[in-house]
Amino acid sequence: MKPGPSRTLAILTAIVLGALLPQAYVAAWLIRWLVITMLFVVFLQTRVTRDAFHRTHAYLLAANLAIGAATWAAGYFIGGRDLALAAFFCGITPTATAAPVITGFLGGRVAFVVAAVLLSNLIIAALLPLMLPIVLGRPTPEAFGQVTTSVATVMFAPLLLAWLVRKLHPPAAAWPKKLGNLTFALWVTAIFLITANASHFFRTQIGLPRTLVAEVALASLVVCAASFSLGRLIGGRAFPREASQSLGQKNTTFTIYLALTYANPLVALGPTFYVLWHNLWNSWQLHRHRPPDAP
């Protein structure tokens, strides 16, 4: 599939169909495996070494934590506890495991984003048991185990498998260039299922106050715009695209689970709306992106 309008149309179509076909949520279990497959293809040409880690990652991590704390405080001041928690679960969310895939589509340095995924997910997982009691009012020691298990499955499994395949069959490093369209098709399918799952979740929550729902949607949009923008600012001239994606594209599946487990469905709408906003932004980025060899 050619870059530009065709990819944008594909993503927007997936979002619309997902919103119109909430019944597809029954296949949401496939999302993890789609992401694992995409990451395996990406990792075939990506070697994560010590050089992949940069001091910019420390700034991104600090920004991730600061956004979570600041949005919680602002939300509490503006709309109360539920709005504060919805904003918090948007802001504190670590980098999405699929962020390296989008970065690859955009021609960025995938290894930088892979390092951001590893650092942000592991460190934020370690800090969440300390932060959640403050915002929720009760201890949540199991949070670390839940997120590290998820990261180990989704991130390390394809990373190790790709390393093994490269060792046994070195020409496999060239497969990603040949499988670009397949990888994008998997990503579009994942977006459809993610949106369908979010649509089903939203439709099954009856009796939610519309004004507060609108406030949650707006808060998640503000957090999304601030995260992508601040990430680009932190990345500077060296890593603008990579840092923006690392801070802006978030592991919402994890924080939706946390919000449902420790708060309530209204709070979970924060990261649920974030799914829509960051995918719309990604579609716009792909629309604007033109590889060097594109006409």
Fraction in beta strands: under 5%
Structural class: mainly alpha
Q: Percent helix among the residues? A: over 70%
Question: What is the overall silhouette?
Answer: globular
CATH architectural label: Up-down Bundle
The third-level CATH topology is Na+/H+ antiporter like fold
Radius of gyration: 18 Å
Give an overview in words.
The protein is mainly α. It has one domain (5-120, 158-285): Na+/H+ antiporter like fold, CATH 1.20.1530.20. It has helices at 5-20, 30-43, 55-79, 81-91, 99-105, 110-136, 143-168, 175-178, 180-204, 210-235, 240-248, 252-262, 265-288. Helix 1 (5-20) runs antiparallel to helix 13 (265-288). It is globular, with a radius of gyration of 18 Å. The model has no long low-confidence stretch (mean pLDDT 84).
Summarize the structure.
By secondary structure, the protein is mainly alpha-helical. It contains 13 helices and no strands. Helix content is 76%, strand content 0%.
Topology:
Blueprint: H1 5-20, H2 30-43, H3 55-79, H4 81-91, H5 99-105, H6 110-136, H7 143-168, H8 175-178, H9 180-204, H10 210-235, H11 240-248, H12 252-262, H13 265-288
Helix pairs in contact: 1-9, 1-13, 2-7, 2-9, 3-4, 3-6, 3-10, 4-10, 4-12, 4-13, 5-6, 5-11, 6-7, 6-11, 9-13, 10-11, 10-13, 12-13
Comma- or semicolon-separated keywords:
Na+/H+ antiporter like fold; mainly alpha; 295 residues
